[in-house]
Amino acid sequence: MGNRVINIHQSFWGEVNHGHDLITTSLNNDVLNQTLSSFTDRPGSTYGRNIRPYFSGKKIGDYFVFTKSYPDDTSSRTGMVFTHALIFSTKEITSVKNIDFVFRLFSDKMPVKPSRNELLYFIRQKIKDCSDDSQTMYPKYIQTAVRSLSTGNMPIIFSGEVTNFIQLITQIWKVDFPTLRENISFQIAFTPNDIQQNTSFVFAPNEFLDKWIAYPIINDKEDFLIQIENEVEELLLGNSESNTFLSFLKDLSTTPDSYKTISICHRTYNLYNKLNTCSVSETLQLIRSIATISPQTNESHVKAKAIDRLCFLLPTVSEDEIKGLRNIDFSAFSDGLKKIVSSIDQFLDNQFQSSNPKLEQLSQFLLEVFEKQENVKWWRNAIEDKFISILKIISDFSIIW
């Protein structure tokens, strides 16, 4: 672990000429400020109800912005907020695993409003890089949230204390992949209509829960500690030591950049773990998923085992499974296409050598191959070449006879 210093720009947003606008900033960036103008404002109507200070955060261009908004009782109109924004270089903040310090930089109470265009300085902050999270006990609500993330069920809608919501965000941030951190986003929402596109985490205040009846809510009332034993959940919480799911991803040279990708990797990992008992349809699904999450050819143990399992099964499958090979990109696998073509050869050999061949089904299959204009040329060529080879053998045998 080591210490380093990073620069943090800041800006304040609130009432300007009876509307919400920029008050002052240490970073003059028109494109950034255009987005922050709406992001720092209250997301929707509060229906006359009181709100407490709340946090938001997301990547905007080359920056990652964390904000804290305070209800502004001094404004000329009711329902307005005063917002303090902390602006980080995305590259810098996503290289940091522990962001507890970020939320400590915000004031508990609403800060004194600066005057319009008042000189504002950036913050120089010393931070300490942390090692992997070695804890195994977490509040139940955190496990519930991370389990939803691992299966792609998003956004996570949370209700409870703001401090517990921030605990969830800081814990999730410890995930091993900076590419995943930069796509984390969180906001407050008073109704489902307030949720912005691609938001990861939503804080729904208790006072507005009647607006969320049709939505699954994670509540911090489930705060008893439980032990996390699932490798995927452990990795998403920042515990990468001896993690078999991480080893699986590294073998595939895969770096997840979204929770959707994580969910695909999770399903692929579960299939791979039962590879020796996978049916042909499951193995085909595994191969497709691997080609999706790891499209580049590499010396992967996982890929080699998966393609070998498929090649082992193919000679005894039906024509439908052979057809299913057409929509898979085997270039992701070392010698993948060569191995698959060889397996198609074995399949056709078995069909013609069978003591009880299903000639009608096989004839229909071959007729489709020769009659239809097939876009996947390698697949058609493999079947045509093998069929011609078989016919030649039969012809030669007839001549000899």
Characterization of the model:
- The chain is an alpha/beta fold and 401 residues long.
- The chain folds into three domains: 1-130; 132-273, no CATH class; 294-400, no CATH class.
- 40% of the residues lie in helices and 17% in strands.
- It contains 15 helices and twelve strands.
- The protein has helices at 30-39, 90-93, 100-104, 140-150, 162-172, 178-181, 231-236, 244-251, 259-272, 280-293, 301-313, 319-323, 336-353, 359-371, 377-400, and strands at 3-16, 19-25, 54-60, 63-71, 81-89, 123-128, 137-139, 156-159, 186-188, 201-203, 218-219, 225-227.
- The strands form three sheets. Strands 1, 2, 3, 4, 5 and 6 form a six-stranded antiparallel beta sheet that branches.
- Strand 3 (54-60) and strand 4 (63-71) form a beta hairpin.
- Helix 9 (259-272) runs antiparallel to helix 10 (280-293).
- The termini are far apart.
- The model is unreliable at 396-401 (pLDDT under 50).
Q: Could you say which overall geometry the principal axes of the C-alpha atoms support? A: elongated
Strand content: 15-25%
The overall number of domains is: 3
Rg, Cα atoms, Å: 29 Å
Amino-to-carboxy terminus distance: 80 Å
- Overall mean pLDDT stands at 89
Q: Which structural class is indicated by helix and strand composition?
A: alpha/beta
The major pleated sheet works out as:
6 strands, antiparallel
